[in-house]
# Entry
Amino acid sequence: MKCFPSIRFYVFIFSLIAIYILIDFKVKGYREFPQMDFDWEKKELINRYGVKRIYFVTHNSVGIEYDKDDLSHVENSNTIELITSEGKKYYFRHEYKIVRDSVLFLKGGIWLTKIPENKNIKKAEVNEIKLNYKRNNEGINVCFIGNTDNKWGRYRSLRRSIKMKNREVNFIGSKQDIYGYFYDPVDYKKDYFHTPNVSFYIVFLGKLSEKKDFYKYEKLINKLLLRNGKVIINTWPQINCKLNPMILKKNQFMKQWNENEKIILIDLENLVGGSEIREDNTYDLSKEGYRVYIKEILKSIE
# Structure
């Protein structure tokens, strides 16, 4: 007579599998399902626009019937909620808007939930809501400071990439990017003493071409050094192009703080080869350049 494993054995095996699936989902779920990062119980209704015609839906844009008396005030810091006649809800965030022929085009966006299965939606209830990220009270508070909104390229997913690698990070700031993470667009006139105290300030600035730019940057760094947190800055890799003299000057300028114990200098000049700057004479890093930069940030804030 053959001996088969007992029922307890099967229960034990299935329990292990279930635990593994739960842990795997906990670790990877935030990457696959970005909506899990939001505190949905505390979502705020900003505006209710009623039922509108939906002209088109794509992976990164939506066309909505436009009424200047209401939809003209839609903010890209908020989220658009579409509710179909079947009661299905979809959530979309956009970078910018265009109005043309009574149609509001919300462009350069992402779907927090999956894209509507039926892309031929004719009408939907349209709401504007505010979503905030869940904050880890025991986490690492970081203020990311950039010199523009940096809406395009790999920069716009920079904070998301950091968060995916380290779930303990809380981004603090006055504005939200396309994924909802907070940051501060740099304003040299802004009093950074009013910025919430954080453990790290990451200053990621591009062009410094004129003497006044260096003066303003130095003023900003010195203000941040009066806070309790550490300040992360970076040099730039060189490339044989017209930007080289400017990059050399900027790198020398950055290294003046190298001995300050509150400064963390990410030396991209030596970590990344010159080819990691795009060939179009910009400060944009390549995919590999951003990978190295993110890796160094994660090492710095551990």
